[in-house]
Amino acid sequence: MVNWSSLETVFLDMDGTLLDLHFDNHFWLEHLPLRYGERNNLAHQAAKDELIPMIMAERGSLNWYCTDYWSDRLALDITGLKAEVGDRIGYRPHVTEFLDALRQSGLRSVIVTNCHPDPLKLKLERTGLDQRVDAIVSSHQLGKAKEDPQFWRDLQQLTPYDAGATLMVDDSFPVLESARAAGIAQCLAVLAPDSQQAARERHPDIPGIHHFDEILPALRQRQAVPSPR
After folding, report:
1. pLDDT string in tens for the chain (229-residue length)
2. How many other CB atoms sit within 10 Å of the CB of residue 143?
3. Which domains does the chain carry?
């Protein structure tokens, strides 16, 4: 599923890949409509009916992920509202073991996320995730979402990488398709990003896992191979 011996760099999505997507889904589908309804004197379902089409219209764009954009558009403190349900932020199964194994293997691990820097800070404070990887890049630093093919070329300016020796792990099929089109040699889909929802169907062309324990044994075998002298 992954050719570990050919890799130098592992790019990792954050939400839905390393962290449970339940937090974000709960926020956007339940908590934000609740607070939006309170502010605009709308019943919860009416608030959802108004908000969700508005949000979905931005899907795949940087605005979709931008806390500043939604704070301005909705006249609400999105980051502050996220903090209200911050207790739901947490790791997906086997993630810490996987990140530890990556570090022990000598591979470079870089989080490449569409998360805005403000909620990113909240998530790092809650999890200490930044202590388990070598670097973190937010797409907001580049002004392009990962779905944009130009994103991967611009990423070279922040964290140079050899596309032919890189793995991208993400729960978003459009992101993985974008990475593959940009020349990333190996792509891997996470099929169970939200612990409260059923797993998704597999992508026809991109291999997928439900949890990282499925690829940990092979990664650990790579660790056991002595480095050439």
Report:
1. 899 999 999 999 999 999 999 999 999 999 999 999 999 999 999 999 999 999 999 887 888 888 999 999 999 999 999 999 999 999 999 999 999 999 999 999 999 999 999 999 999 999 999 999 999 999 999 999 999 989 999 999 999 999 999 999 999 999 999 999 999 999 999 999 999 999 999 999 999 999 999 999 999 998 655 544 4
2. 11
3. 4-20+90-224 (3.40.50.1000), 23-88 (no CATH)
3-state secondary structure of 12: strand
Between CA 154 and CA 134 the distance in angstroms is 19
Identity of the residue numbered 10: V
Task: Output the six-digit token pair for 187.
Answer: 């792509």
Phi, psi torsion values for 209, nearest 5 degrees:
-130, 160
**pTM of the predicted model as reported, rounded to 2 decimal places:** 0.92
